[in-house]
Write a structure and sequence with these properties.
Helix content is 27%, strand content 27%. The strands form four sheets. Strands 3, 5, 6, 9, 10, 17 and 18 form a seven-stranded mixed beta sheet that branches. It is of the alpha/beta class. The chain has helices spanning 38-44, 87-90, 132-135, 138-153, 171-182, 195-204, 232-241, 262-267, 280-291, 309-317; strands at residues 2-8, 11-16, 26-35, 55-56, 60-65, 74-77, 80-81, 101-102, 115-119, 123-125, 163-167, 187-191, 208-210, 222-227, 242-250, 271-274, 301-305, 325-329.
Length: 330
């Protein structure tokens, strides 16, 4: 089969590679659409020690099952495979299973390829009439779904009454904004330094945007801040925007280290939590919302053929993309 392979920092190339062979309990899936994630870009830049080249990246995927109980059906893929047996999995917190494995991290190859082997229990059937590129977005949007669900547990008042500030206007940030609106939130701000990206966010819903430095909400005014970028600077902004008694949800993985004003967080009793991916229940709920049309028309997605993947990565690296998501089609 043909695959887009990460071969060295800032280098991906189309190659012929062996077809994957499904193991017991796995299905073979013909990939129909796969999104480029920020973590793919992180690995592409050589900044993720887990992603060692040569490696097929990509984990936001949907396609058609070629084997198993869903054979012949279109499916969207939860790329996070858990053991199903540990206490975390039994409690429904399978996203933090100690034995979890994510495709695109060795030893599991990713989805920038014509075919992929994945556990059958990680597949959700896509109804007729739903575009396969939309189905592939269940993965990134589920991250925002999980974050909003976790944040709601920390709130005293209803989540719908909150002002929500989201740092980062890519697919994770925009997806979180769409989920927040679905949950009744009306006061939603999204920051992004790119004017084109801000325009994309504004076209996707009734969201207020700003560049992160000016024109945004007042300091200490947001009951919920979602850091969808995860840098030292965005963490500092999180504590700047959080209201007394507010909540900060940290999704982004741009880098670890400093940024939080822990003294202010202590004095103002601000809750901070990290949020990693989503549970299978979150993934299914997100997929249903996409299938039902409750998350919009996805006019913020740009499609390109997988064979143009190297150019897509280069454009994202140079900031030449206004769309919140590029989806590659094998």
């Amino acid at each position: 089969m043909r695959a887009l392979v990460y071969t060295a920092p800032f280098t991906v190339e189309m190659r012929d590679v062996p077809d994957p062979v499904p193991e017991a309990g796995q299905a073979l899936v013909a990939v129909g659409a796969v999104g480029i994630c920020g973590s793919d870009m992180h690995g592409f830049a050589g900044h993720d020690e887990r992603r060692i080249p040569p490696l097929i990246l990509g984990h936001e995927a949907a396609g058609t099952a070629l084997s198993g109980k869903y054979e012949g059906k279109r499916v969207t893929i939860n790329p996070l495979v858990s053991c199903g047996e540990c206490s975390y999995c039994i409690e429904g917190r399978d996203n933090i299973c100690p034995d979890r494995k994510l495709i695109s991290i060795p030893p599991r190859e990713g989805a920038f390829a014509e075919k992929l082997a994945i556990a059958e229990r990680n597949l959700v059937v896509v109804p007729d009439g739903v575009a396969i590129e939309q189905a592939a977005l269940a993965e990134p949007i589920a991250c925002g779904w999980h974050a909003m669900r976790m944040a709601a547990k920390s709130f005293v008042r209803p989540l719908a009454d909150a002002r929500v500030v989201i740092l980062g206007g890519g697919a994770i940030g925009l997806g979180t904004a769409l989920v927040a609106r679905l949950h009744g939130v009306s006061d939603i701000w999204v920051s992004d330094p790119s004017p084109a990206r801000r325009a994309t966010v504004q076209a996707a819903g009734p969201f207020k945007t700003f560049d992160g430095k000016s024109g945004g909400p007042e300091a200490e005014s947001a009951e919920l801040v979602v850091d969808a970028y995860g840098s030292e600077a965005s963490r500092a902004s999180s504590t700047d925007f959080a209201a007394p008694g507010g909540v900060i949800a940290h999704i982004g993985l741009a880098g670890g280290g400093a940024g939080l004003d822990t003294r202010r967080m202590t004095l103002q009793e601000i809750t901070f939590f990290g949020t990693y991916t989503y549970t299978m229940a979150d993934f299914r709920a997100t997929a249903r919302s996409i299938f039902d049309g409750r998350l919009g028309d996805f006019n913020w997605v740009e499609q390109r053929p997988l064979s143009d993947g190297a150019a897509a990565f280069a454009d994202l690296k140079e900031g030449n993309v206004g769309a919140a998501k590029i989806v590659l089609r094998p």
